[in-house]
Design a protein that fits this description.
Helix content: over 70%
Strand content: under 5%
Largest sheet: none
Organism: Commensalibacter intestini
Pfam families: MFS_1
Number of domains: 2
Subcellular location: Cell inner membrane
CATH superfamily of the largest domain: MFS general substrate transporter like domains
Shape: globular
Oligomer: single chain
Number of strands: 0
Protein name: Sugar:proton symporter
Distance between the termini: 49 Å
Keywords: Cell membrane, Membrane, Transmembrane, Transmembrane helix
Amino acid sequence: MTNKSTVEQLPDGYLNKTPIFQFILLSCLFALWGCPVSLNDILITQFKSIFNLSDFASALVQSAFYGGYFLIAIPASLIIKKTNYKTGIIIGLGVYIVGCSLFFPASTMATYTMFLAAILAMAFGLSFLETASNTYSSMLGPKKYATLRLNISQNFQPFGAIAGVLMGKYLVFQEGDSLHSQVQKLSGDQLRAFQLEHLQYTLQPYKYIIIVLAIVLVLFVLTSYPNCKPSNTKTHEVKKVSFGETISYLIKNASFRNGIFAQFVYVGMQTAVWSFTIRLALELGAQNEREAANFMLYSFVCFFIGKFVANVFMTRFNPKMVLFIYSMIGTALLVYISFSSSFYAVYAAIFTSVLMGPCWPTIFANNLEVVDKKYVEVAGAITVMSIVGGAVVPAIQGFVSDHLHSMQHAFIVSAICFAIVGLHFLREYFKKEHSASAV
């Protein structure tokens, strides 16, 4: 007789019950990649003043970060496929620690390029973590609760994001006048000493992150985890298709192509808005970076509140129509930000975050729905790779800001992106309605 208290792996890779400690430890990883995402928004403001960068150049922080995700996503998935989820997580934590450690020589060398290299290395590690953890979370228990487990794990991410903003506010940003105004008064050796001093502040959050990562890495190494991979039985065999055949199919799938573009634009818009909220607040009258960081904190809180509110609406109304309305309201707010002369534009940027939350998972799920099941794994990986929009759109918005000499006016780039996302949801809504009528 089988002991029901024993965790057993089923033929399809799922478990008969969820191992609680392993699941909680895995879920903590979601907070660990939420933290550097929000710290990037701090670094953009810090580096712009310290290195006297254009808005385009400062946005390269996001280009390095999301470019790293893009470059390593498929190699990470192949390594995890050949080994297991736990190995992928351990590799990810190790590379993440290396990336954080590179901030120390970067601060000594005091070169922007070295910091970008450190951020790129961190992104390589985080790509391993996300590629392994999202699927692993869904597999650690009965199949019927897979989505619930993943949603629970994702709820850990806001804690990391908020922690990142708080560390940036109190450890990176300092009291007094804004960095820009202080830098303008200095030159020569005084300026060089000021830059080196403030680059040391940039190290502070990463010291604590390295300590936490080391503890989590040791725990993962010592903790026994199930394999969670389907057994090779005829029941669970799936007809294998070549990578070339899969890519050919996906390219010809118009709905999938549209979804990839919508995800690319959405991630780019979200990243651009968050990247430049602190800059917007400073441009419209915030006293210094520490005060302006409060508005970034409010944005993350609103983002996660918005996700829960949207879920209520989406259970009662057509999700695509709900998100079309969300996108149109968001577009209007971003247009207002672009042309308003009032500090209320900053609050509009904060409220825009309420409207972003449900977009990513809805586009992701829809992209998997419109492809044949035998192509779904590659389709999912390509959809994750569309996160590279976060490397492109902020750079475009920074470029526009440099040429218009106004970060505020450059928010029109984000407005156009949100409008494109809204039109995607509207098109998908009518397509589904048309299909239902035909049936």
